[in-house]
Amino acid sequence: MAEGGAVRRVTTGGSTAYWAPGSHILWRYRENAGERVHICRPVTVVRDDAELLAVWMAPGTECVKPVLADGTPVHGEPLESRYTKARSVRRDRWFGTGVLKLARPGEPWSVWLFWEPGWRFKNWYVNLEAPLARWEGGVDSEDHFLDISVHPDHSWCWLDEDEFAQAQRAGLMDTRLATQVREAGLRAVEVIRAWGAPFADGWQHWRPDPSWPVPALPDDWDRTPAHVSS
């Protein structure tokens, strides 16, 4: 690994560059109906190729998350006004167990794996979002509110349907986009029912390299990418 976990690019078979395992990149989300970055999570690359980007967010990672302008946590605000009050961002840390995030190029969702303490696998979490846009420092997306929880017994359920509906009422998502998001969710459900990738790939048995340092949050975490390519 490069010193300090710095980004290392690996070029394979032409001009497509991938990040080497152990590299540190930023996994970011733009605010809804806006251009500013309001979520930023430094992560360590596990795998990056034409089929999959897999990254590890370690416990204790310093992140950026949205808060209301007065510092109130977003989910502490009643749903009816949650998306209309002024917001800011705050540095914080990811507490609890780490998260493994998996994303296929061009797919409108990523799949996150959660564990209980002691590495007891908890669940997969399908985060519906804009396909990841790659840039030199990491990947950017926009969260689409609606999610799916998938359990070890292969059962599943929708999550955050109330937030999905409220985001539409608040003007953060028009009817066209909401329809696309619901359709993407139904496609994800088809994958779940067929027990396709990544659910059948054994990622719940993966463990991080114990020598990996926790990535640092850079001061310019919200910098605008000089070049973005999908």
Automatic annotation (TrEMBL):
Coiled-coil regions, chain positions: none
Protein name as annotated: DUF402 domain-containing protein
Alphabetic keyword roster: Hydrolase
Organism annotation: Streptomyces kaempferi
Domain DUF402: 78-196
Record keyword Hydrolase present: yes
